[in-house]
Amino acid sequence: MPSWVRWCPVVLALALTGCIQTEDRRSSHTPSPTPSATSTSPSPEPKQPPRREPVRLAFAGDIHFEGVLADRLRDPSTALAPATAALAAADLAIVNLETSVGTGGSPEPGKRFTFSAGREAFDALTHAGVDVASMANNHALDFGRARLPSTMRAVRAAGEADPPLSVIGIGSDQQQAFLPALTEVGDTVVATLAASLADQDPTADPTGHWAATRTRSGIADATAPSRLLSAVRHADETADVVVVYLHWGIQGESCPSPDQRRIAGRLVGAGADVVVGSHAHQLQGDGRLQEGYVAYGLGNFAWYSPGTGATSRTGVLTLTVRPPAARSGRARVVRSSWWPAAIGTDGLPAALAGDAAAEFRAERQDLRECSGLTR
After folding, report:
1. Mind spelling out the 3-state secondary structure of 229-297?
2. 239 φ, ψ to 5°?
3. DSSP 3-state assignment of 134?
4. 103-123 b/e with 16+ CB inside 10 Å = b?
5. Local confidence pLDDT in tens for the 375 residues of the chain
6. Rounded to an integer, what is the distance from CA 321 to the centroid of its chain?
7. Residue 320 to residue 58: CA distance in whole angstroms
8. Rounded Cα–Cα distance for residues 244 and 272 (Å)
9. Residue 164 and which of 5, 26, 29, 340 are 20 to 30 A apart at CA?
10. Residue 69: closest CA among 144, 152, 19, 128
C-alpha cells in the first residue's frame, strides 16, 4: 500500500468548514446603481471542484489456514505468496477471512467443518498487502463464544499494528459489528462494511445464533437487512466511496440467487458503490448494476483443497473507482480487471497464462450474463 494512504480509526469524524468573506462597507453617500445601469465587468465563473484521482480497490475471496496451509503461518511474511503482488498493488485490498481466530474455546457441536487459526493469520494478511478483512461469515465463531474475547483482543492489536489491518463484520455488540472501516486514500474516503446473509440451516450448520445484538458479541448478521441498509446510508453521508462485502448466496452455484440479486439492488439504491461477496466457493458474475458495481462471488482464494475445476478458479478483482466531484454525487467504477489464478495442491492461488487465462476471460463473460449484469 503506498505511503500516502493513511488509515483512520474505525470511527472517522469528517468536518466541513466554511469560509465567509465580507466586503468593506461603502460610505453612506456612495450612490447605488440604478436598475437600468449595466456593468462592463465580466461575471466571475463559478469555481469547479478539483478533479480527484481515481482509487484502485482489490478484492479476493475466502481465505483460511487449514490443511496444507496451516504450516504457512510459521512465517506470516510469506504465508500467502505468490498472491501478495496482486493485492499490494492496489490502494486498498479487501478479503474474507473464513476462520475463527485466537485461542481457547472448542469446536462448535454439529458443524461438519470448523476452522481455526492463531492471531498470526492477521499478520499474514497484512504481509500480503491486505488492508481490510471481513469476519462476517459462518466460520468466524467455529470455536464458540468462549474464544471471542481472544478474537477481539487480536482484532484490536491488528488495528494498532504498523501497517494496520482493519477487521470488520465482528464486534462486541451489533453497533460495533456493523461499523465500517474508513480509509483515506489521498483526499478520498472509502467506507467498507461487511455482513453475512448466508442462509443458516440449524440442522446442518448451527451458526444462526452467532449474530451480534445490542447486548451480545458476534458477527454482523443481515438476514434481515434493515440494519445493513441503514449502515450503508449512513456511510454514504460521510464517505466518498462505499463498499459492502457480503457472505451470501448458495454454495456450489455459479449464478446468483434471486435473493442475492434483490439485496444487491437495494444496497446500490441505498448508496453502495461496490458490492462484492463470497460463500458459493466458486466464481460468480461481476459487472454494473444501476449506478454501482457488483461481484456476486469471488470464490475461494487460499483454501485447503483446490477441489474441482470450478472451485479452484480464483483471482484478484481490481476496480478503478472515480470519486464523486461533490459529496452528493456518486462514485463510479471506470475500469475492472482480474488477476486470473487457480488454487493448486499447496492451497495457494497461482497465476494463469495463455489458453488458461483466455478460458478464464470467456468464463467471466458467461458468468456476467447469467447474473444479469452489464460491462
Report:
1. HHHHHHHHHHCCEEEEEEECCCCCCCCCCHHHHHHHHHHHHHCCCEEEEECCCCECCEEEECCEEEECC
2. -115, 160
3. strand
4. eebeebeebeebbbbebbbbb
5. 544 444 444 433 333 333 333 333 333 333 333 333 333 444 445 445 566 899 999 999 999 999 999 999 999 999 999 889 999 999 999 999 999 999 999 999 888 899 999 999 999 999 999 999 999 999 999 999 999 999 999 999 999 999 999 999 999 999 999 999 999 999 999 999 999 997 655 555 666 789 999 999 999 999 999 999 999 999 999 999 999 999 999 999 999 999 999 999 999 999 999 999 999 999 999 999 999 999 999 999 999 988 888 999 999 999 999 999 876 789 999 999 999 999 999 999 999 999 999 999 999 999 999 999 998
6. 13
7. 9
8. 7
9. 340
10. 128
Q: Say how far apart CA 187 and CA 4 lie, in whole Å.
A: 10
Measured CA to CA, the distance from residue 138 to residue 221 in angstroms comes to 10
Residues 6+ apart with CB under 8 A from 72: 65, 78, 79, 80, 124
CA 43/CA 22 separation, integer angstroms: 18
With b for 16 or more beta-carbon neighbours within 10 A and e for fewer, the 276-285 pattern comes to bbbbbbbbbb
Alpha helices in the chain (DSSP H): 84-88, 120-127, 148-160, 174-177, 226-238, 258-270, 309-312, 354-371
Tracing cell 492489536 back to the chain, one arrives at 157
Residue type, 93: A
* Domains, in order of start, for the chain: 55-371 (3.60.21.10)
Secondary structure of residue 42 in the 3-state scheme: coil
Name the pTM for this structure. Answer: 0.86
